[in-house]
Amino acid sequence: MGRYAWFIGGVTSWFLGAGMQQVLFAWLLVGALHQDPHWVGTAQMCQTLPALLFLLLGGLIADHFDRRTLLVVLHALAAVAAGGMSLAVGTGLLSLGVVILYGLSWGTLAAFAQPARDALLSEVVTGDLMRGVTGAALAQFAAQAVGARLAGFSGRLGNPAALGFQAAVFAAGLVMAWRLPAAPPMQARTGGSTAMSAIREGWREVTHSEHLRPIAVLVACDGLFFMGPFIVLCPLIVRDVYHGGITELSLVVMALTAGTIGGSVAVLLRGGVRRKGLAFLLALFGVASCLVILAAPLSFREFIAVMVGWGICHSLFFNTSRALFQEAAPPSHRARVLSIHSLGLLGMAPLSNLAAGFVSGIVGTRASCALAGLAMLVVTAVASVVTPVRRLE
After folding, report:
1. What is the DSSP letter of 233?
2. Backbone angle region of 126, left / alpha / beta, with phi > 0 → left and psi within -120 to 50 → alpha
3. For residue range 183-209, what is the model confidence (pLDDT) as tens digits?
4. If you average pLDDT over each of 4-8, 22-26, 193-197, which comes out highest?
């Protein structure tokens, strides 16, 4: 197998486990513990908080250490964390505090894995980078969809067994990462002797770029207005509106990722996207529109269909924004620049999750979706007029 194939194998393993994590973590909160919306939002905030705290540090570490070794260690720790949670649930120790602690652990590992994986991608791709990015995204979303569906079977197998299987999936990725060639640290110019000064260099690469700066702001808005509705509001809608269980929740998560897969396949078949900036803006309009539609009294099938549409638009957003960052990032700062992309998307999630939980307790889950969608429609419309994003190739 070539190095790109081993890389894709590692991506598949990690996100198969991540797809299970999305469903299992949410279900432990809304199904097993029957938490109110504000506690669901708070716990989900804790799971995503490490991204805000550690993504930039993760980018710095990925630039200065062997990225293959980092991924091996992170896969091993993720397996240990899932195995520990399986033991806790199986022995009757499940509580809100335990779930929050597990969420913090998983979020921390993901925050360090993301920039290491992103930086390594540019080194294993041979040929067109856009196709390499889209291929990796396709593997990621396909694995998430399968993982989400597998988590749905925990209703039959039990949560401890599902968490144990998740641990085995992460352990398998360790082997994939080990088969990758060594990825020694980049010879980056640091501009200073401290970690903070090195992180600031990556930040300056983005803020001083006429192209990357508005993309980064819009990615952050995506994280602010879209993460909470998906991670917090959708599980609450499944439980409170459709009176569903973990099977229905897994179908909702799988529907979004299935749409993302379809969008990524379309991009691959077209050979990439030419006008990436315009496609990026249209994708944001599409996701925002889906959120507004969720405020309507939909049947469960119609709800699933909207989630598929959300996924299709999200795939276009993800592929175009990531490709624009990959192409503009200098090799010496690539992990740090890409970590800012991830920070924009994931770093806003804690605030988004917390706000979604509290706002839904006031106006309801469906109305909260509509408010988030309308806000993003306004932001995207303004950006399409006052920034050069729509002209980016």
Report:
1. I
2. beta
3. 666 544 444 444 456 556 666 766 666
4. 22-26
Mean pLDDT of the chain: 83
Sequential DSSP letters for 91-113: TT---HHHHHHHHHHHHHHHHHH
Stated pTM of the model: 0.77
Q: Residue 38 has which token pair?
A: 């504000």
Q: How far is CA 124 from the centre of its chain?
A: 21
In order of their start, the domains of the chain are: 3-178+208-391 (1.20.1250.20)
Chain-centre distance of CA 299, in angstroms?
A: 27
Write b or e for each residue in 58-93: b if 16 or more Cβ atoms lie within 10 A of its Cβ, otherwise e: bbbbbbbeebbbbbbbbbbbbbebbbbbbebbeeee
User: 21 near 159, Cβ under 8 Å?
Assistant: no
| C-alpha closest to that of 13 among 178, 129, 133 | 178
The amino acid sitting at 363 is V
Q: Where are the beta strands (DSSP E) in the chain?
A: none
Which residue, chain included where needed, has tokens 């839904």? 360
Indicate left, alpha or beta for 128 from its phi (over 0: left) and psi (-120 to 50: alpha).
Answer: beta
State which amino acid sits at residue 80.
V
What gap in Å lies between CA 325 and CA 151, rounded to an integer? 33
